[in-house]
């Protein structure tokens, strides 16, 4: 059994004089009173791989006794000062559920104790006028020991401010303003573990050196930086996908596409003999995720359309049939996704991506200025899109045109992502072209969703008819989807004219 919560906190150097050195926080925002609890004795053993893969990706896994939440704690980074904490009951070994959630980071490497951190904690609770806890200030006396033979020891003090669930982050800013007036500043380490690893000599995960051969400001530096960012996103999304969190599958699929598009668009920067096999594996993973995503989109689309119909147009057990259709497919779809994430093939892909960003296979174009190499790559993707659009718009209405529009959508996506990679280097010209490519992609995406929905609705209508139910409502929804697809086709020439304006490309051509 596990459960999770979001944890929003900041760490500071301890005030001189201990708790007596804290400012009076009564009246800061909604804080009406400050109460004392503790002290608590906490004992945590942190686990990681030999090469500190968890710490290197800002994740922590510990077994902690003492305090109100004794157990295994897995902390995963989110935006800003917030992390997600997944809790599991105490056990001797790392719980299997947590092993799975860190698999994208460990890639199967054994987990072992790396450092033990013991803290004596005094707590001050900030409460509102009704007595509800808004935040906790914890002053810790910390003792750290490396677990390996010959490891070092370290001691320090630390002040931590953690918000209670649901409290706006503005309270952290208000408290920090008050602390600064007392000379209390942010800690120089993001976590106890990071400081313990550094000060005991186990390892410092905060140092990130650029890969060998990558020249600052070159095309290669921008491409590799983008790849590193997207690989990090892919790894961080894995736990969310495993737990079926909202939009996680979609975001991971999009990340696969971003990575694959970057590798394909910037072959003048990276050697395709190395990157093409990686791109092929990214295509495989996106395909596995696509089954779940397509099911999710259809369920939401058809469900919303059905909810919008007047009662007199809903004939027969339409909602029940839609639920049966969804449930009959959902578990198979989720199982397929989870299985894909746990396969050796997926772990090999993550290893390959890690190697790619640490030792990029640079070509001559990597050392050239972005205005030459990256602009050329973006314009090349524009040319592909223009060719696809010409083919699609020349086709008569029907399946062949729908197929060409789908191919044009994929080309628009590649142009959008190529411009996204180049935007930090090329600035507004790349951003503007990418924005128009996105508009084309989104319009064609709406068209494709309507086409796919028509096929599903037809199958549902056939099944309803075969069961002796009325197929009227399914036919009505099918007709609306067809009308929507035709409307998108009528809008397309205008959107494409804006995207193909030569003025958008002129700054990249010179």
Structure, described:
- The chain is of the alpha+beta class and 510 residues long.
- It is built from 15 helices and eight strands.
- The protein has helices at 53-56, 96-101, 103-106, 170-181, 192-199, 219-242, 248-265, 272-307, 318-341, 344-358, 370-394, 399-426, 428-466, 472-499, 502-509, and strands at 3-12, 33-48, 60-65, 71-77, 82-88, 112-127, 133-146, 153-163.
- The protein has an eight-stranded antiparallel barrel with strand order 1-5-4-3-2-6-7-8.
- Helix 7 (248-265) runs antiparallel to helix 8.
- The termini are far apart.
- The model has no long low-confidence stretch (mean pLDDT 93).
Spell out the key features of this protein.
510 residues, alpha+beta, single chain, eight-stranded antiparallel barrel, globular
Give a quick precis of the structure:
By secondary structure, the protein is an alpha+beta fold. Helices cover 55% and strands 17% of the residues.
Instruction: Specify Rg, calculated over alpha carbons.
Output: 27 Å
Largest sheet: spatial strand order: 1-5-4-3-2-6-7-8
What is the β-strand count?
8
- Low-pLDDT parts are none
The end-to-end span amounts to 60 Å
Q: Give the structural class.
A: alpha+beta
Number of helices: 15
């Amino acid at each position: 059994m596990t459960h999770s919560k979001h944890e929003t906190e900041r760490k500071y150097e301890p005030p001189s004089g201990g708790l007596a050195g804290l400012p009076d926080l009564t009246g800061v925002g909604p804080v009406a009173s400050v109460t004392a609890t503790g002290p608590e004795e906490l004992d945590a053993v942190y686990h990681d791989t030999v090469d500190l893969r968890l710490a290197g990706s800002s994740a922590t896994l510990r077994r902690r006794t003492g305090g109100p939440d004794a157990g295994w704690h897995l902390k995963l980074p989110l935006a800003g000062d917030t992390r997600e904490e997944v809790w599991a009951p105490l056990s001797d070994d790392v719980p299997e559920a947590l092993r799975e959630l860190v698999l994208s980071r460990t890639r199967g490497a054994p987990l072992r104790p790396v450092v033990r951190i013991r803290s004596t904690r005094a707590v001050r609770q900030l409460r509102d006028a009704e007595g509800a806890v808004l935040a906790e200030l914890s002053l810790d006396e910390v003792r750290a020991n490396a677990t390996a033979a010959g490891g070092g020891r370290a001691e320090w003090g630390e002040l931590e401010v953690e918000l209670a669930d649901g409290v706006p982050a503005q309270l952290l800013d208000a408290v920090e303003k008050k602390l600064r007036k007392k000379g209390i500043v942010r800690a120089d380490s993001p976590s106890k573990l990071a400081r313990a690893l550094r000060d005991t000599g186990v390892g410092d995960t905060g140092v990130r050196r650029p890969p060998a051969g990558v020249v600052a400001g070159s095309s290669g530096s921008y491409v590799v930086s983008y790849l590193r960012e997207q690989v990090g996103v892919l790894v961080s999304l894995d736990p969310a996908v495993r737990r079926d969190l909202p939009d996680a599958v979609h975001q991971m699929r999009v990340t696969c596409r971003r990575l694959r598009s970057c590798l394909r668009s910037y072959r003048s920067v990276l050697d395709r003999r190395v990157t093409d096999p990686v791109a092929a594996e990214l295509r495989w993973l996106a395909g596995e995720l696509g089954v779940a995503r397509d099911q999710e989109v259809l369920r939401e689309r058809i469900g919303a359309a059905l909810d919008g119909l007047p009662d007199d147009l809903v004939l027969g057990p339409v909602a029940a049939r839609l639920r049966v259709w969804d449930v009959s497919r959902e578990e198979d779809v989720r199982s397929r996704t989870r299985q894909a994430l746990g396969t050796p093939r997926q772990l090999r892909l993550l290893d390959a991506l890690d190697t790619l960003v640490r030792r990029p296979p640079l070509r001559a174009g990597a050392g050239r200025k972005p205005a030459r190499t990256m602009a050329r790559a973006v314009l090349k993707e524009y040319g592909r899109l223009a060719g696809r659009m010409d083919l699609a718009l020349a086709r008569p209405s029907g399946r062949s045109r729908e197929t060409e529009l789908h191919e044009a959508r994929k080309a628009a996506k590649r142009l959008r992502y190529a411009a996204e990679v180049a935007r930090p280097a090329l600035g507004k010209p790349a951003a503007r072209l990418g924005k128009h490519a996105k508009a084309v992609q989104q319009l064609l995406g709406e068209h494709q969703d309507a086409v796919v929905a028509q096929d599903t609705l037809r199958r549902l209508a056939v099944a309803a008819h075969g069961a002796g139910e009325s197929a009227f409502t399914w036919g009505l929804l099918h007709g609306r989807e067809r009308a929507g697809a035709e409307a998108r086709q009528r809008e397309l020439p205008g959107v494409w004219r804006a995207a193909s304006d030569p003025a958008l490309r002129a700054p990249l051509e010179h």
